[in-house]
Amino acid sequence: MTRRKEQRVDPDKESARGMAQMEGYLLWSAEVEEARRLAVRFTDELPWLTTTQCEDVARVYTADRVAASRAMLARIAARSIELRGEYNDRYRRLRARCVAAAVVTAGAVSGTCTALTLLTR
Q1: Distances from the Cα of 102 to the Cα of 85, 89, 96, 99, 110, angstroms
Q2: Is residue 3 part of a domain?
Q3: Is residue 44 part of a domain?
Q4: In the 8-state DSSP scheme, what is residue 50?
Q5: For 92, phi and psi rounded to 5 degrees?
Q6: Domain membership of residue 48 as a residue range
Q7: What is the total count of domains within the chain?
Q8: pLDDT digits (tens, 9 = 90+) for 83-109
């Protein structure tokens, strides 16, 4: 009989993940709604179009705007991943330098104390 591993789920992490998903959904819904609103505004500027033509133009305009937004979000996501990697590398280097400086300082202080102790005997 095989035992299933119990998965421990951190409620705080699950809540944060759920909130991030909800925020993303709401932001994307707002972007789509904005595209629709702009499409209607655009077709209102073309009074000679028939109702069917207005609907077609609005549909195409909305699809184009949503595609442009999706492409922009993909570029932003890719850049954020690049930046995360760059910042992690910089942080690692900075941390290594700080640790090295602390070790050198501790060694210098220890050596100075030892030298002073030996000189004062």
Answers
A1: 26, 20, 10, 5, 12
A2: no
A3: yes
A4: -
A5: -60, -45
A6: 13-119
A7: 1
A8: 999 999 999 999 999 999 999 999 999
